[in-house]
Amino acid sequence: MAELLWQPVDIEQTPVEKFRLFVNERHGLSLQSFADLHAWSVAEMDSFWVDLWDFSEVRAQTRGERVRLNPDAMPGVSWFPDARLNYADNLLRRNDDSIAIVFRSENGEERTLTHAQLVAQVASVSRKLRSLGVVSGDRVAGFLPNMPEAIVAALATASVGAVWSSCSPDFGINGVLDRFGQIEPKVLFTADGYHYNGKQHDSLGLVSELVESMPSIEQVVVVDYINAGSLSGAAAKRGSAFSDWANDGLDLPLQTEPLPFNHPLFIMFSSGTTGKPKCIVHGAGGTLLQHIKEHQFHVGLKPNEKLFFFTTCGWMMWNWLISGLATEATLVLYDGSPFYPDGNVVFDYADSVGMHYLGTSAKFIDACNKAGIVPAKTHKLAELKSVLSTGSPLVPESFDYVYSSIKNDVCLSSMSGGTDIISCFALGNPALPVYRGELQCLGLGMDVQAYDEAGNALPAGEKGELVCAQPFPCMPIGFFDDDDGSRYHSAYFDRYDNTWCHGDYVSVTDNAGMVIYGRSDAVLNPGGVRIGTAEIYRQVEKFDEVIESIVIGQQWQNDVRVVLFVRLRDGLSLDEDLSKRLQTYIREQTTPRHMPARVLQVADIPRTRSGKIVELAVRKIVHGENVENVEALANPDALNYFVNRPELQS
Question: How far is residue 302's CA from residue 326's CA, in Å, rounded to a whole number?
Answer without folding.
Answer: 10
